[in-house]
Structures are given as C-alpha cells and as structure tokens.
Amino acid sequence: MYSVIILAAGKGSRLNLGYNKVFYEIKGKEILEYSVDYFLKDSAFSEIIVVTNDRDLNHVKELLAKKDVIITLGGITRQESVYNGLKKVNNKYVMIHDGARPFIDKKDIDNLKKEVKENACVLAKKIKESLAKTSFGNLKSYLNREEYCFLQTPQAFDTDKIFKAYELAKTHENTYTDDASLYMEELSETVKVIEGNELNIKLTTELDLRILEVVL
Q1: CA–CA gap between residue 111 and residue 103 (Å, rounded)
Q2: Could you check whether the bond before residue 154 is cis, i.e. omega within 30 degrees of 0?
Q3: What DSSP assignment string belongs to 32-66?
Q4: What is the distance between the alpha carbons of residues 39 and 42, in angstroms, rounded to a whole number?
C-alpha cells in the first residue's frame, strides 16, 4: 500500500488572489480537491495526508470534511511541511505531491508505483526550447537540453529512507528546494527520472490558471 502527502500550506503570492491558490475554484471544485479526489479513487493509496497552515486549517477541514484524509499542520518552509507530513505516514512507500498540481495522470502514478519498489523516482518534463546561459543580458553559451529537465510531482520514495534523509537534513541544517535533491544529497542515493505528462503543471501564474481551466 502507498501513502501520499499533499502539500497545501503555500500562499501563491505571484497570482495576487489574496488567498491560498489551492482554493481557486475551477468547474465547481477547488484546486486542492482535484488531487485529493484522484488519490481517494486509487485503492492502492490507504493514506492521504494533507498538510496545511494555521491560517487555512479551518477551511481545509471544512472542504475535506466528508473525505477520508488526514489533515496536519505544516511548518514555515516547504521542507518543514513535508517533514511534518512524513511523521504521519505508516505505509512502506510514500509519494509527495504539490497541492497546486491538480492535473494527475494515471499512467504517471502507475509508473511511479512500479519504479519506487526499486528506486526513489520523480516525474519530469523534457525541455523543448533551446537552453542558453546568459551574462549581463547577452548570450554566453548554449547548454545541451537533453541533460536537463523540469521536475514535477509526485515524487516517490521508500518511507523509511526519505524520513531518514529529512532527519539528516534537519541535523545538518541543510535546506533544499525539493524532496529528490534532499534525498540524493543526504543519503547519496540515486533517483530515477520518469517522463511525466506535460499538463502536470504547477499553478503559479495567470497563464497556468487559464490552461487548467481548459484541461480540468
């Protein structure tokens, strides 16, 4: 069986909504509900852990009142929020997902389920455009885009290993931008990359909103 941690403790300040972006409503459902509902329908996930903040706690409780989920408080940073979520996990494998990514593809999740039994793994999107390094507003050099990718979530791990990695990061006072980088650096372990659906976008900008309003 699998667990999933869904992070919903952010602010989404770049959208200027005046409230947490995971509460933006599309077609009668708030962004957060799309992720929660997907994992509720997948019988392989026996634990759905939603991490929120003090400000939004009551709203999340009301929104998900009729859904079989665990709600817990996050921390000041994303890293602290994931760590708090991991403390609630009881299954052997866990996926960590951004609540602001409501478009979830079943094929992606099935691929993660298979791979995580052998390796930690992440979803990623290929880079299509030319990739260049700049200096003072001028092109400096071109990079091989085949060596780079855009990371997505969920990211999947053996629960004991990712929890150990988070405890080490806390002990070492190291800060990371995502779970895979923390896992690699603290445990010196390999993370496999799985090509994900291009529509698995993270709601960040007005354009993202317009795209999600079409595809959801």
Answers
A1: 16
A2: yes
A3: HHHHHHHHHH-TTEEEEEEEE-TTTHHHHHHHTTT
A4: 5
Are 145 and 131 contacting, i.e. CB atoms less than 8 angstroms apart?
yes
Q: Give per-residue pLDDT as tens, 121-146.
A: 999 999 999 999 999 989 999 989 88
Note the pTM of the prediction, 2 decimals: 0.95
Residue 142 CB-density burial (10 A; 0-12 exposed, 13-18 middle, 19+ buried):
exposed
User: How far apart are alpha carbons 200 and 188 in whole angstroms?
Assistant: 28
Neighbours of 85 (CB within 10 A): 26
Residue 121 contacts residue 33 (beta carbons within 8 Å)? no
Contact predicate 177/118, CB 8 Å: no
